[in-house]
TrEMBL record, chain A:
Organism: Platanthera guangdongensis
Database matches in Gene3D superfamilies: alpha/beta hydrolase (3.40.50.1820)
Keywords: Receptor
Domain of life of the organism encoding this protein: Eukaryota
Protein name from the UniProt record: Gibberellin receptor GID1C
Domain Alpha/beta hydrolase fold-3: residue ranges: 113-327
UniProtKB/TrEMBL annotation, chain B:
Domain Transcriptional factor DELLA N-terminal: 18-87
Segments for region (Disordered): 503-523
PROSITE patterns reported for this sequence: GRAS
Name used for this protein in its record: DELLA protein
UniProt keyword annotation of Secreted present: no
Keyword annotations of the record: Gibberellin signaling pathway, Nucleus, Transcription, Transcription regulation
Origin: domain of life: Eukaryota
Domain comment quoted from the record: The DELLA motif is required for its GA-induced degradation.
Taxonomic source organism: Platanthera guangdongensis
Length: 358, 523
């Protein structure tokens, strides 16, 4: 390597594959060009950089996708992924009609995963290529799931609680679609899932759901975005070492939270000083994935503790030597093993005994 | 630097590009990964150093124009040249305004209501789609009686679905088109006023003109004599903006020649448009000449009539024209001779706008299905932008051409950008990438429209405007690849006063009309 100009010696190169490193670093540097110190955001350039992919009603690896308007007034869109419809013998796969696609993928119970993409509330969309790939994987992974990726409103143009409202709208929409129900009891077996800010949204939508009596089969949070005013030891130790920079985290919270709020706002710190008590609510079981090289991990661990203290089940997967974004490319054990965990979690929570003994 | 601890999750160096990164939209060879990684690290360090020196990182290059973000190696190289990655190298600039562009998708057959009303008859909508497909299938199989019955059924069903929005709106036009095909009824008439409505009420044509003009302006940078050939002048709506932009150019406007091509029956209209553009050019001080050329078919235009001069920089502009020269897939079609004469002109830039659709499929049913989805999306977008019926009626002509016509009569042979790319490269035309400034300006143009569902996307250096995630129209730029640096010759140029002449042609297929501006200009 040529003579060092490094101000910051990054240790991240030793723990991730080269192509993953390039992918995440590219996000990091291009994102640097988008955030402005006055809190505004270069949305045009952001959309220019974002690699997008269209929906595809022709099967690719057995999965089809289509875009759908969940709410015309607010232009809330989502991309739905599902197994390709079964073919009659001899039929060639072809682009399916919307009417064919909005039928149950199976006569047996199937999971519906409402997915909230990451991006620190400001970046990415449901048609971003990285998330399109991920959602397609989920369909097959979970035995023929329907995955609905929500194109929620992003900050700084739309602050708290817009993203949560959009998540709630999505959940209500899913609840009103007959084709998403399955099993003898014709139930919607819905999981809320998300990475980064998406994980944060999944939590808050789940709270709203259980407060209004909507049943959620499970929550899947991967590197969810939580924080607080206090600087934790991990934040100080890992700042800037593995793609994540505290100052940048601060910027995103400032862009999302209400003007004048600090990071102990319950959106950011759900079990902090301003948190809401979840005791006694039928909060869903959670699968929580934490990367040991994520500076914000202590907030995620505190989240797990908060859930447990309120009497709720959490399956915590703590990945040693994993950085953020490991799940984007299928080239590490972290990726493969976490995918297996997600698969098992969905499977074991798909059919819940009617016994309320748990 | 711990080289041995780099994992390799990608294919080995023998393969073209890293397949995992390709799967998420990036194109990079495994052999380039290391260098790109080093440069990314340097750029990151430079940004951090800038911050440490008191300047926010994005000031490093906030007025940079970015191209083709999928090509990581090229992008990081452009950043390297721009920033030198040296901590002393900062250029603070004015931050550009931020604006939201929404994402997109095609309409569901039965639109869900946001208020707690009972849901509209979605089943009727879905039934209608089934009937449309069945009818198209009957026609495809030559079963006229069934098709006729189905048309009747659909006409009965239509009021139940409602033609106010969603599938009902576009279904009505498709039912009419199927009926015209079945009963050999004539096609709807062309109407200038409808074209104007369509232009005004949706961003598609404006995006087309705007983006093409941006590319032309950039290509004309530093050139004193410029010539634009517009393959279909129509009402000349694209050119006032370019004339004004040239007037405001730092260093002053060039000599601007515009050659507009139009159909023989529109000779007078062509003159009139040229006259008005000359007036405008005079009023803003741009030395301007207009020449009109009439031709029944583009591939028949004789190069000599275009009077392209070697000292001028040439741009050729085609908005929704190329597809009219295609034939059935597999057959050559007049497009090849057009592209060949285009290439011989050696233009600095060829701007191309085309519908992003696959309407040239040979099998009727496929074509019909594609068109149904495409125009559903377009009509949906028009409704939100307050487009209303005139714009729809304008598009109805296109729909009828696709559904009813065959052979030479079928002109609306839209093909996707990917097909055009192949065709152009076979004809010796190479892409000129549209960058983030064109993207940004197109995006900002969209914010003027009420429908939040519009979005611009960049794909491989081309821009596409779409609605709800579905690309509707694409804009791209190309060049002939050689001889780009012919220096302009100097000399005195005199413009006569306003004159009109018609150069007769015995074959009758080509005429020219020349109009000059009244500005006298000499070098």
């Amino acid at each position: 390597m040529a003579g060092s100009n490094e101000v910051n010696v990054s240790e991240s190169k030793t723990v991730v594959p080269l192509n993953t490193w390039v992918l995440i670093s590219n996000f990091k540097v291009t994102y640097n060009l988008l955030r402005r110190p006055d809190g505004s955001f270069d949305r045009h350039l952001a959309e220019f950089f974002d690699r997008k992919v269209p929906a595809n009603a022709s099967p690719v690896n057995g999965v089809v996708s289509f875009d759908i308007v969940l709410d015309r007034l607010s232009h809330l869109l989502a991309r739905v992924y599902r197994p390709a419809p079964d073919l009659a013998d001899g039929e060639l796969p072809q682009k399916a009609l919307l009417s064919e696609l909005q039928k149950p993928p199976s006569p047996n119970p199937f999971p519906v995963i409402i997915f909230f993409h990451g991006g620190s509330f400001a970046h990415s969309s449901s048609n971003s290529s990285i998330y399109d790939s991920l959602c397609r994987r989920f369909v097959t992974l979970c035995g023929g799931a329907v995955v609905i990726s929500i194109n929620y409103r992003r900050s700084p143009e739309f602050r708290y609680p817009c993203a949560y409202d959009d998540g709630w709208t999505a959940l209500k929409w899913a609840s009103s679609e007959p084709w998403l129900r399955s099993g003898k009891d014709a139930k919607l077996r819905v999981f809320l899932a998300g990475d980064s800010s998406g994980g944060n949204i999944a939590h808050h939508v789940a709270v709203r759901a259980v407060e209004s009596g909507t049943h959620i089969s499970g929550n899947i949070l991967v590197n969810p975005l939580f924080g607080g005013n206090r600087r934790t030891e991990s934040e100080l130790k890992l700042d800037g070492k593995y793609f994540v920079v505290l100052k940048e985290r601060d910027w995103y919270w400032k862009a999302f939270l209400p003007e004048g709020a600090d990071r102990d706002h319950p959106a950011c710190n759900p079990f902090g000083p301003n948190g809401v008590k979840l005791d006694g609510l039928p909060f869903p079981r959670s699968l929580l994935v934490v990367a040991s090289l994520d500076p914000t991990q202590e907030w995620q661990l505190a989240y797990a503790d908060g859930l447990k203290n309120a009497g709720h089940e959490v399956r915590l997967i703590y990945r040693e030597k994993a950085t953020i974004g490991f799940y984007l490319l299928p080239n590490t054990n972290h990726h493969h093993e976490v995918m297996e965990e997600i698969k098992d979690f969905v499977k074991s929570n798909l059919i819940v005994s009617t016994n309320a003994a748990d | 630097m711990g080289e041995s601890s780099y994992g390799h999750g990608s294919d080995d160096a023998k393969s073209e590009i890293d397949s995992l990164l390709a799967g998420v939209g990036y194109s990079i060879r495994p052999s380039d990964l290391r260098q790109v990684a080093e440069r990314l690290e340097k750029l990151d360090s430079a940004m951090i150093a800038a911050a440490a020196a008191g300047l926010p990182p994005e000031f490093l290059c906030s007025d940079a124009v970015h191209y083709n973000p999928s090509d990581l190696a090229a992008w990081i190289e452009s950043m390297a040249m721009l920033t030198d990655f040296s901590p002393d190298h900062f250029r603070p600039t004015n931050p550009a305004p931020a604006s939201w562009t929404g994402d997109i998708c095609p309409p569901a057959p039965g639109p869900p209501h946001p208020v707690a009303n009972p849901k509209p008859p979605e089943d009727a909508g879905i039934s209608l789609v089934h009937l449309l497909m069945s009818c198209a299938d009957s026609i495809h199989r030559g079963d006229r009686p069934s098709a006729s019955t189905l048309i009747h059924e659909m006409q009965l069903l239509l009021p139940r679905v409602g033609t106010a929005f969603g599938i009902g709106k576009v279904a009505g036009y498709f039912i009419d088109a199927l009926d015209r095909r079945l009963r050999s009824r004539p096609l709807p008439q062309e109407d200038d006023i409808l074209y104007h409505y369509y232009y005004e009420s949706s961003p598609y044509l404006k995006f087309a003109h705007f983006t093409a003009n941006q590319a032309i302006l950039e290509a004309f940078n530093g050139c004193d004599r410029v010539h634009v050939i517009d393959l279909s002048l129509m009402h000349g709506l694209q050119w006032p903006a370019l004339i004004q932009a040239l007037a405001l150019r730092p260093g002053g406007p060039p000599l601007f020649r515009l050659t507009g091509i139009g159909p023989p029956e529109g000779r007078e209209a062509l003159c009139e448009v040229g006259r008005r553009l000359s007036e405008l050019a005079r009023s803003v001080g741009v030395p301007f000449t207009f020449r009109g050329v009439v031709a029944a078919h583009l591939d028949e235009v004789r190069l000599s009539l275009l009077r392209v001069e070697s000292c001028e920089t040439l741009a050729v502009n085609s908005v929704l024209q190329f597809h009219r020269l295609l034939a059935d897939p597999g057959s050559p079609g007049p497009i090849n001779s057009l592209l060949s004469w285009l290439r011989r002109l050696r233009p600095r830039i060829v701007t191309v706008v085309e519908q992003e659709a696959d309407h040239n499929r040979p099998v009727f049913l496929d074509r019909f299905t594609e068109a149904l989805f495409y125009y559903s999306t377009v009509f949906d977008s028009l409704e939100t932008a307050g487009g209303g019926r005139p714009a729809e009626v304008y598009l109805h002509r296109e729909i009828c051409n696709i559904v009813c016509c065959e052979g030479e009569e079928r002109l609306e042979r839209h093909e996707p950008l990917a097909s055009w790319r192949t065709r152009f490269s076979q004809a010796g035309l190479w892409p000129v990438h549209l960058g983030s400034d064109a993207f940004r300006q197109a995006s900002m143009l969209l914010t003027l429209f009420s429908g939040e569902g519009y979005g611009v996307e960049e794909v491989d250096g081309c821009l596409a405007l779409g609605w709800h995630g579905r690309a509707i129209i694409s804009a791209s730029a190309w060049h002939a690849g050689d001889d780009m640096d012919a220096p302009p010759s100097t000399g005195s140029i005199l413009f006569n006063g306003f004159r009109e002449s018609v150069a007769g042609e015995s074959s009758g297929s080509n005429r020219e009309i020349e109009l000059g501006s009244q500005t006298e200009h000499s070098l």
